Amino acid sequence: MRSHDELVEAARKHVWLHFAHYEDVEKRPKIFVRGEGMYLWDDEGNKYLDTFASLLTTICGHHRPEIHEAVQKQMEQLEFFPNYHDCYTIPSIELAEKLAEIMPGDLSVAFFVGGGSEANESAMKMARQYFWEQGQRSRTGILAKRFSYSGATMGAMSATGIPWFWETFQPRIAGYGFFNPEWYYHRELGLDEGEAGKVALKELTELVEFEGPESIAALTMDPVSGSNTGYWVPSEEYMQGVRSLCDKHGILLIFDEVQVGFAKTGKWFCCEHWEVVPDIMTIGKGFSGGYLPLAAAVSTQKVAEVFRKPDSEFRHGFTFGGHTTACAAALANIEIIERESLVERTAEMGAYLREKLDELYKYPIVGHVRGIGLLLAVELLDDRDTWKKLEPEGQIGSWVRDRCYELGMILRNNEDILVFAPSLTITKDEVDLMVGLTEQAIAEACEKFGRA
Ligand SMILES: Cc1ncc(COP(=O)(O)O)c(C=O)c1O
Question: What separation in Å is there between the alpha carbon of 330 and the centre of ligand 1?
Answer without folding.
Answer: 17
